[in-house]
Amino acid sequence: MATPKFQPHGFIDTPQLEVQYRTAHFSNYFEDVFINSQQPPEINSRKACDIVIEYTESGTFHTRVLCFIECKRTKKTTGYDLEQVEKQALEYCMAYLGSDDNLSVVYACTAIGAHIRCWRLFKGEEAFLGFWGGTSPAARDQYKDVGVDADAALIRWAIDYMIALPPTGREGQTIDDYGSIYAGQGK
Predict the structure, then answer these.
(1) Cα separations (Å) of 129 from 19, 87, 133?
(2) 55: exposed, middle or buried (C-beta count within 10 Å: 0-12, 13-18, 19+)?
(3) From first to last of its 187 residues, what are the pLDDT tens digits of the chain?
(4) For the chain, which has fewer Cβ within 10 Å, the N-terminal or C-terminal residue?
(5) Sign of dihedral through CA atoms 82, 85, 89, 94?
(6) What is the spatial distance between Cα 156 and Cα 99, in angstroms, rounded to a whole number?
(7) In angstroms, rounded to a whole number, what is the distance separating the alpha carbons of residues 67 and 30?
(8) φ/ψ of residue 171, rounded to 5
């Protein structure tokens, strides 16, 4: 029996990435951000977020959190697990926003296996606003599959939005490309 030929889909554009996709790992395509794991949302926190995407703030060279990503495995994931992953991410975002008066927004993603939902939280709010699907918490149907082209395009748009409109200006970002989803890509 012949092995089926690999077909690129979504972010999955090589056979090697297909293997990782099947084990629910997300491909890293970022260039000017830093990715850390098991990082607390604030200095004295005893909690740690699964993945934290940071960037260098313009003019200060301080690193700032762009996005908190909290993840769960897909095996035996229940509605309760979905609520918990979103609750954890929300707590990290609220703690981070509360730790700095200069911040008004931070982003988050929650992932269940290879399915992702992207969020933003504004200071003073107690609930996420989804990049799609509104504010509905624990809505499994709003989680997008990184292996489906249309879903991957939506996820990429949300991440590009986060990078283009960070909580504070990003190093190397000019007034001409601040707010553009094509920031830093030479238009």
Answers:
(1) 32, 13, 8
(2) buried
(3) 444 577 787 877 877 666 556 543 333 444 567 787 887 777 777 788 888 888 877 777 678 888 999 988 876 666 678 889 999 999 999 999 998 888 889 999 999 988 999 999 999 999 999 999 888 888 888 999 999 999 999 999 998 889 888 887 666 655 555 554 443 333 3
(4) N
(5) positive
(6) 29
(7) 12
(8) -55, 135
Task: In whole angstroms, give the CA distance from residue 161 to residue 45.
Answer: 28
Consecutive H or E run containing 151: helix 149-164
The residue type at 155: I
Single-letter amino acid, residue 54:
E
The H-or-E segment that residue 93 falls in is helix 79-98
